[in-house]
UniProtKB/TrEMBL annotation:
Gene Ontology molecular function: any one: GTP binding
PANTHER family named in the record: MOLYBDOPTERIN-GUANINE DINUCLEOTIDE BIOSYNTHESIS ADAPTER PROTEIN, MOLYBDOPTERIN-GUANINE DINUCLEOTIDE BIOSYNTHESIS ADAPTER PROTEIN-RELATED
Record Pfam families: MobB
Domain of life: Bacteria
NCBIfam families: mobB
Protein name: Molybdopterin-guanine dinucleotide biosynthesis protein B
SUPFAM superfamilies referenced in this protein's UniProt entry, alphabetically: P-loop containing nucleoside triphosphate hydrolases
GO terms, biological process: Mo-molybdopterin cofactor biosynthetic process
Domain Molybdopterin-guanine dinucleotide biosynthesis protein B (MobB): 11-137
Length: 170
């Protein structure tokens, strides 16, 4: 495996319930099997609850702290109230990663795989700029964009690897 500029970032996008998380889970396992260190950044269109009622960090947030951090010997988690956080800020949290996969961000300029599943949607909805492939269970074709099956995780990983190394050759 050749050296890769770190980290390479790409998105897995699609409409709600299209199978983004399922594809991401399989991609993470496949990329790790290939020797990459992988991180995932998930976009949530709603205000998620980062902590649970009754924990010390939740109590500190309730008291007005704009940020909390909890850590142990092997992991840590920080929650920070900050409007309009940038992808660069989030990706910087994982500077040691080889690959950062983002879930969502269909309108971003990130290279992306779009999941289109026939029971959920019938067409591509993402920004076509940097669309690497459609991952679908339909005969859906876009000019110049490959279509891969929902179970073709190896081919998805191959495509990401090619793009990753293409980026380092520039």
């Amino acid at each position: 495996m050749a050296a890769v500029k770190k980290p390479y970032a790409a998105a897995v996008c699609g409409v709600k319930n299209s199978g983004k998380t399922t594809l991401l889970e399989k991609l993470v396992k496949e990329l790790i099997r290939r020797g990459y260190r992988v991180a995932v950044v998930k976009h949530d269109g709603h205000e998620f609850q980062a902590d649970t009622r009754g924990t010390d960090t939740f109590r500190m947030q309730e008291a007005g702290a704009y940020g909390t951090c909890i850590f142990s010997g092997t992991k840590w988690m920080a929650v920070k109230q900050e409007p309009q956080v940038s992808l660069d800020t989030l990706f910087a949290l994982f500077e040691e990663a080889d690959v950062i996969l983002a879930e969502g961000l269909k309108d971003s300029a990130l290279p992306k795989l779009e999941v289109v599943r026939k029971d959920i949607s019938s067409e591509s909805v993402c920004n076509r700029e940097n669309l690497l492939a459609l991952v679908t269970d339909m005969d859906l074709q876009l000019p110049g964009i490959p279509s891969l099956g929902l179970e073709e995780v190896g081919r998805c990983a191959d495509l990401l690897e090619r793009e990753m190394y293409k980026k380092t050759e520039r």
